[in-house]
TrEMBL record:
It comes from Rhodohalobacter mucosus. This is Organic solvent tolerance-like N-terminal domain-containing protein. It holds the Pfam family OstA_2. Keywords: Signal. The keyword Signal applies. It comes from the Bacteria.
Amino acid sequence: MTHRKPRYHLFGLILVFLIPVPAAAQNSVTIIDADILQTSIIDGQTVTRFLDNVILSIDNRTMYADSVYQFAAQNRIQAYNIQIETENEIIWADTLYHNTFTDYSELRGRVVVESDNNRLFSQAMDVSMPRDITFFLSPVRFEDDRGALVAESGLYYQQADSAIFRGNVQLADSTQYLEADSLFMNRSTDLYELFGRVYAQDFEDNVTFKGDYLYADSSGYRLLTGNDAWLLDISESEADTTHLLAKKIELMENDSVSTMDAFENVRIWSNEFSAVGDTANYDNSAERFVLRSNPVLWQKNIQLTGPVIEVEMEDDDIRFLSSHPRPIAVQEDSLTRRLHQMTGDTLHAHFEDGSVERIIVFNNSEIIFHIKDENEEPDGLIELIANGSSTLFFRDGEFDFFKAEENPDGSWLPEDPANVDRKLSNFRWDPGLKPYRPMLQLPRLPQIPDEPLFEFPPRYERYLSEAEDED
């Protein structure tokens, strides 16, 4: 199992849009041009109409529109087919409604906001300047050169530099894909939280997550939770696949630390081994993980059970494992299906090329191993105890012979049905607990379409055409 840092940079989407809002003061609005200027009474209200090729300057912003209607008594301005140019963005919309008293703007129809780095598309966007909040009331799409973020609605709070997106949130670029029911992000602290039906893929590191909640911050800390929070890790060679399931998975990745911890109903499945337990701790730099709270580990036809199991990996294979206190290892003979058993105060197992090479049980060792005759048929068993250590040697992963030290004492029991099921006092054999290979989890939502949310407004089409001609 090789853990590498998942990325959640969200490709620097800029959410600060300076939506132009005319101030109430008369001298803050400058009429640069309009083909027609009319004043009339409509429903008892004085309405000033600027028609055809309207250009206004509002607080260092320039607005172009087909028409602008000013309702002075209601402190309201309506503008149609607009283009607004600011220092950092250009904004297009079919309609702008602005309250000059509350500084509240509503952009409707085909809304486009473009800056040097990204573009925004929506059909309903409100801006409250006093509260520094932008509301996205209909599906919204952000784009930059690397990817896109889409959601059904959202809001951006400029003062806190925070955004919330809700409803089928998706984010995709060349390195990652994320989806969730909602997303909270704070750019200044580099903090991201995804809620509900979370799915995340890191294409560069071949890591996939699925759960109910995902948290990430600038320290390199990641938290994934859910009834069956799921992490899939594919090795760099793509020869080994590891599935990790738990109620809580924590990852820490920075310049000095690379760890992963899993808690509650932990299940691990890989091409080389599988395990269950209540807690798992993995140190990527040392390629070492620890299972706690009476875990069980299976490697081929061997089951190891103990209060604590420590595993050292090398090239995605188990190289060495140890367990204490008083663990028990059981191996099912591949021919006779009899169960070899070994226990002691501490157990060490050494592996070579993915197969067990020898197992050493230290202090107060006990062994039961079943014998075969020259025809590979069952031929009784040997029971052995020793004050010191006992070593069992394996050939091609199968038990071969043993060596015992310090006052060994044993006996041979002939082949007899009464002896077949003899067990050590702490015997455990639980093939029913062994995890199956989990089903591969796939995204819930369809791929983010390349097509825009709507046909572009005329002024934006003209802007794109002129930009293309300049290139």
